[in-house]
From TrEMBL:
<dbReference type="InterPro" id="IPR023214">
    <property type="entry name" value="HAD_sf"/>
</dbReference>
<dbReference type="InterPro" id="IPR023198">
    <property type="entry name" value="PGP-like_dom2"/>
</dbReference>
<keyword id="KW-0479">Metal-binding</keyword>
<dbReference type="InterPro" id="IPR036412">
    <property type="entry name" value="HAD-like_sf"/>
</dbReference>
<dbReference type="Pfam" id="PF13419">
    <property type="entry name" value="HAD_2"/>
</dbReference>
<dbReference type="InterPro" id="IPR051806">
    <property type="entry name" value="HAD-like_SPP"/>
</dbReference>
<dbReference type="InterPro" id="IPR006439">
    <property type="entry name" value="HAD-SF_hydro_IA"/>
</dbReference>
<protein>
    <submittedName>
        <fullName>HAD family phosphatase</fullName>
    </submittedName>
</protein>
<dbReference type="InterPro" id="IPR041492">
    <property type="entry name" value="HAD_2"/>
</dbReference>
Length: 228
């Protein structure tokens, strides 16, 4: 799917989710939750995984999938899941490192907005030598995705208006969060939303001086989506 627009949208900041957008981590996340859940006698359907685990805050997941457990038990469950995720090795989504590197040649801010936590983020950043102008993680907000608060906070930190932000998200919860915050959004490996453009990976994107749909700040170049 490609974006069609007569006037390109001006973009001053590009914000990325982490899991499923920068790193291919969905399998590790799902495994961490399901393995831990089995220890407590739970099993979940694929629909429950999609709705309550992928792209969601840990509080959202715990409240919906472990509603009968006490707060102290939820804390232990969460700790076990975190430990399993922190020990994982992650590969990046195809083309994303090159795309971020290219963005650094222009006057746009690059931010990370994730439901992950500092220890995991640090591990990923060191694994792949990444850095961002702004990082918002689960520790920074009271209400995680699908609530808009994480993206609203990132925009506030970067002093960027929502209409001038472009967000890359993979999960339904993350897309809900970005759209509710007023940002432009491109979905990664998610074609559930007919009104939102999507890409299979970042090799489908190009930055050039013609036929772009998102104009990079103070530049005559922009972001375009190549058709599959």
């Amino acid at each position: 799917m490609s974006v069609t627009a007569t006037v390109a949208k001006k973009i001053d900041a590009v914000l990325f989710d982490l899991d499923g957008v920068i790193i291919d981590s969905n399998k590790a996340i799902i495994s961490a939750w399901l393995t831990t859940a089995e220890e407590y006698g739970y099993s979940f359907t694929q629909a429950e995984v999609d709705r309550y685990i992928i792209g969601a805050s840990h509080l959202f997941t715990l409240d919906n999938l472990f509603p009968d457990r006490s707060d102290s038990e939820k804390k232990v469950i969460h700790s076990k899941v975190d430990q399993r995720e922190e020990e994982a090795i992650y590969r990046t989504i195809d083309g994303v490192e090159k795309f971020i590197y290219r963005l650094r040649n222009f006057d746009v801010k690059v931010g990370l907005v994730t439901s992950s936590w500092p220890e995991k983020i640090k591990n990923v950043m060191e694994q792949h030598n990444l850095n961002f102008d702004c990082i918002v993680c689960r520790n920074d907000v009271q209400r995680g995705k699908p609530d808009p608060q994480p993206y609203q906070l990132a925009m506030e930190k970067l002093a960027i208006a929502p209409e001038n932000c472009l967000v890359f998200e993979d999960s339904d919860n993350g897309i809900y969060s970005a759209v509710a915050a007023g940002a432009n959004c491109i979905a990664v490996k998610n074609d559930h939303f007919s009104h939102i453009p999507y890409i299979e990976d970042f090799n489908q994107l190009c930055i050039d001086d013609s036929e772009f749909s998102y104009q990079l700040a103070n530049a005559n170049k922009g972001i375009a989506i190549r058709p599959l």
